[in-house]
Amino acid sequence: DTGVSQNPRHKITKRGQNVTFRCDPISEHNRLYWYRQTLGQGPEFLTYFQNEAQLEKSRLLSDRFSAERPKGSFSTLEIQRTEQGDSAMYLCASSPDAGELFFGEGSRLTVL
Amino acid sequence: AQSVTQLGSHVSVSEGALVLLRCNYSSSVPPYLFWYVQYPNQGLQLLLKYTSAATLVKGINGFEAEFKKSETSFHLTKPSAHMSDAAEYFCAVSVAGTASKLTFGTGTRLQVTL
Q1: If you compute the radius of gyration of chain A from its CA atoms, what whole number of angstroms results?
Q2: What residues in A contact B41, CB-CB < 8 Å?
Q3: Among partner residues B9, B41, B104, which is closest to A43 by beta-carbon distance?
Q4: Could B101 and A42 be called an inter-chain contact, meaning their C-beta atoms sit closer than 8 Å?
Q5: How close, in Å, is residue B114 to chain A by CA atoms?
Q6: Helical H runs in A1-112?
């Protein structure tokens, strides 16, 4: 069991650019979650997948954000036309059905 | 909707002293409650969880928490702090039927001094 893997760990980009983060969950976990954590705050729920189906999206997920999990395995989170307010740590977690969430180490985004 | 409030954004204790991190929850239905720890530049690690079984929950690294419905609290304790306990601690809540979606508190940074 290699745990939840996220890439890249750090991304620095200029405002207006697009960025994409990848999450590889624990292989037998069918649920995958994305959270966002800003400095001094707790993680905030963005979206989650059951297999390849995206079942819930937070109102925090504006139309510039899109998440996919095309084959029910890895997931990508894309942010288009980044803004400085998007600077945050993006955390991915996976779980078996209704079980404990296992978090990755996160992808830190800095928008200049 | 459910929420948690963590009292005290920073707590400092001496090595060997009692650790007490406070968490109060709000939920209209029986909650599931969690404590997570986060070390710098790392993800979150589950310390312990309450899922309606025993009200006193023991976790990893010597931590425990007690669910008190009358006080709507789930405070985290450890009898004797170690330097390695210095980290950010998050309380979180979810409810049955919400696909394990967690709502986190704002966190408490624990400092351990010699």
Answers
A1: 13
A2: 105-106, 108
A3: B104
A4: no
A5: 25
A6: none
Q: Are B3 and B26 in contact (CB under 8 A)?
A: yes
- Lowest-confidence pick of A1-5, A11-15, A38-42, A65-69: A1-5
Average the pLDDT over A13-42 and give the result: 94
Whose structure tokens read 């288009």?
A: A80
Residue of A nearest to B33 (CA): A100
Length, in residues, of chain A? 112
With a cut of 60, say whether residue A20 has pLDDT above it.
yes
Sign of CA dihedral A41, A47, A50, A51: negative
Give the whole-angstrom CA distance, residue B39 versus residue A57. 28
Would you say B83 and B32 are in contact if contact means Cβ atoms under 8 Å apart? no
DSSP secondary structure of A71-101: TSS-EEEEE-S--GGG-EEEEEEEESTT---
- For A77, other C-beta atoms within 10 Å of its C-beta total 23
Q: pLDDT by residue (tens digit) across A54-101?
A: 998 998 888 999 999 998 899 999 999 999 999 999 999 999 876 788
The three-state (H, E, C) secondary structure of B36-48, written as one string = EEECCCCCEEEEE
Listed residue (B40, B85, B24, B28) closest to B60, CA to CA? B85
B86-104 residues labelled b (16+ CB within 10 A) or e (exposed): bbbbbbbbbbeebbbbbbb
User: 3-state DSSP call for residue B95?
Assistant: strand
